[in-house]
Structure formats: C-alpha cells, structure tokens
Amino acid sequence: GENVGLHLPTLSVQEGDNSIINCAYSNSASDYFIWYKQESGKGPQFIIDIRSNMDKRQGQRVTVLLNKTVKHLSLQIAATQPGDSAVYFCAENSLSLSAGGTSYGKLTFGQGTILTVHP
Amino acid sequence: NAGVTQTPKFRVLKTGQSMTLLCAQDMNHEYMYWYRQDPGMGLRLIHYSVGEGTTAKGEVPDGYNVSRLKKQNFLLGLESAAPSQTSVYFCASNRGPEDTQYFGPGTRLTVL
After folding, report:
1. B73 versus B96: which is more confidently predicted?
2. CB nearest B48 (choices: A43, A104, A111)
3. How far apart are CA B112 and CA B96, in angstroms?
C-alpha cells in the first residue's frame, strides 16, 4: 500500500556538523509533507513543511528538500546541537474521505530516524 | 496558548476496566484526532472529528469510542481495556484537513 518510509533508522553526528535525514514516499498524489521531531516522552513537534509545488523550503537552521521525480524528501539541519537529538519523522498529509463522506487530513508517518548528536 | 493538552499523562489499568482520556486545545481548531503510537508501527489514527458534535473512524477504531461535545475537547474512551491497548496515545488538532496537525504530549497507558 501507499507508505512513507525512511532510508536510515539511526544517524550519529558530532556537535556542529550538518545532519541530513532522508525519506522516501510512494504516493505520487501527495501534495503536502511535514517533518516532525519527537523527543523522548513527548509528542511529535512540527519542524517544517513543504507543498508539492515547491522543491525547497528553509527555516531556522533547517531546510527541507523535495524531489518529486524520485519521490524523495530530506531534512537538513545546520550546525547540529545536542538539543537536536530526537526521533525525526517525515509525514505525508493527504486529503481523504471517510466511509461517512467527511473529508479529513490523513497523516501517514514514516517509521522515524533516531538522530544522536555527540558533544 | 497552551496548545494541545492531554490528561492524564500516565495510567495503569487492569483488563476489563474502563477509562476516558481527555484532549483539549485552545487554538480554535475544527479538526481533532486521536492516534496511538506503538514501537515499530509509527502513529496510527484511531478516530477523528471534523467539528463539534461530529466523530468518525480512523484506521484502528475497534475497542475505542470518542465524543466531541465541545469544540475544544475530544474525549477517547476505552469501555473494556485489553492488554493490546497498551500504548502511547496522542491527540492532535488542526484548522482544516490540509493544515499542519499539532500534537499533545501524550498519555502512556498500560493495561495489565
């Protein structure tokens, strides 16, 4: 079935390095992608999003790149800090219809990548 | 803004007991969602609501009921808890179906 997945389950970097977390998706009809950060014992926290009519979007220290040709999404974190250590999920938000006919945003998550930043 | 809050944070139940998880949001969002997160399976949608007084089934609704009597609150009920319902439960909300969902801190539930 349609799914959003990650290439690397774990990533270890040194403080100050740049980190790149990758994600592959299979639903070519998806038009909205989000990166979430989840720290231990907490809920997913929105980081950055991108619509399918864009190929790059930048935030504070983070950049998301979207390559629709190969259905690939990546999150780049500049000057990674120990506080960036967490699990990172990519997610696809697609408009869906329930059995009752109501529309909702169906959020499909990948399994997550564990980022560990060493001081 | 407190955002999305959930109570309780932790709970231990015995098989067959019932309980209600409360989600509250102060962002005036129309849409609210309940997910469960299990190791190796990511987040799965249990039920959702598109507005006050409405509810609908998600991917894994069996064993759960929900209510949305007030726009800011979304309740998740377990009538007869089973060990398979041991999980971390997250609530989320957004303005519309294509807007970013914002998550609460989660409720860790253990059913013995």
Report:
1. B73
2. A104
3. 37
